Input
Amino acid sequence: IAYVEIRKYKIPKNSLFNFILSILGICLIIYSIYSFNINTHHPSLYTLLPVLGVSLLILFLKEINNPISRLLSSKVFVSVGLISYSLYLWHYPIFAFGRAINPDPTIVEKIIWILLTFFLSVLSYFFIEKKFRNKKLISTRSFIKYLIIILSIILVININTIFNEGYLN
Output
């Protein structure tokens, strides 16, 4: 995609062509979702299937009249897209701790974990992500200053812990 964008290659404006390639992209993604399992090697050539699918969508899903474009720009998909980074950050610890508590979770437990992930992601988006994106609340300079202070404190605590061998006594 970057190569196409840098080289300024012209994507054909043929609606049918774009629609067919965007359908192919969706099919590759859906195929990957349903066919990949724990035995699928990753990264491998199999990984190219969903990557190619997403690439086709990005390159050929330019028209708003396209049914796939309308679907992906619906409120539900846009809302999930907005919280996607928080979803990415929250899902792993929730599922990891959940499996630590119960290595063989029921479907109800998994649904609870998914709902908890979405709930915490929405909270994180509104109370953390949006705040950090607002330059009026905290400037980049202030953010870097506070980040350096916090990292310095963590560094001092870690060095002290190492020298004291973890405070075992």
Q: What stands out?
A: Helices lie at 2-6, 15-35, 48-60, 67-72, 75-82, 84-101, 107-133, 140-163. The radius of gyration is 22 Å. DSSP finds eight helices and no strands in the chain. The CA atoms of residues 22 and 71 lie 12 Å apart.
